[in-house]
Amino acid sequence: MLCRLPIVPSALLVLSVGASVALTNPALAEKRPVSVGPYAQVSVGAQKMVGKTKRRTNEAPKFALRVGTDLFSWFSVGGRLDIASHEVVLPRPPEGEYTQFYGGAGEARLSLSIGPVAVFAEGSLGYSMISTNVLETVDILEPGERFSPTIGAGGGLEYQLQNRHYALGLAGEWNMLTEFARMHTVNISAHLRYTY
To answer: Measured between alpha carbons, how far is 188 from 175 in angstroms, rounded to an integer?
Structure first.
């Protein structure tokens, strides 16, 4: 079971501390060769529903796979596939109900490098699918709703390893599923990025 710490405040704390260290530590100003070009990235994290859906779902593990290309050292475009599996809280009975969210999106990312550390912001536009109708029973979804356009925004920090192809990162993201009663999600994740 995932820790019940508030996801958004924890993510903001980690990101702000990391940014402060990156901006004030002279040792981080060293130059490292950085790869620019096609990339692949895997992310693992946690997702939380916010808004009226919050009391009907628990935090969920979230996994994402991204591929794309760096058009410039400061701008990249790509796509992502992701999945999150939420436990649904319903009036008893039943118990132990789950629903999965599957998503796909196109993304654009702006980044600013300070030595081996990069600060980035990204936006996305895509589509999401929910696996079951269990949220219909508590009036979160309309009967038959399964698909929704999704818009998102986020940002984070990335650390370039000595091997110029690899980078480790921490990111936070907000998404709005526009057809699902304006359902909102927030997540935080760690990632490994490989640039060819």
So the answer is: 12
In this prediction the pTM is 0.81
Q: How far is CA 165 from CA 119, 135, 137, 162, in A?
A: 17, 43, 48, 9
Q: How many CA atoms lie within 13 A of 113 on its CB side?
A: 17
Report how far residue 19's alpha carbon sits from residue 116's, in angstroms, rounded to the nearest whole number.
12
* Cross-strand pairs, 75: 72, 110
Structural element, H or E, at residue 23? helix 7-24
- Cα dihedral sign for 115, 119, 123, 129? positive
Confirm if 79 and 105 have CB atoms less than 8 A apart. Answer: yes
Beta strands 117-130 and 147-160 are: antiparallel
Of 77, 78, 82, 75, residue with least CA distance to 118: 75
Instruction: Please say whether the beta carbons of 90 and 61 come within 8 A.
Output: no
What are the residues facing 97 on neighbouring strands? Answer: 88
Tens digits of residue pLDDT in 135-177 = 887 778 888 889 999 999 999 999 999 998 999 999 999 999 9
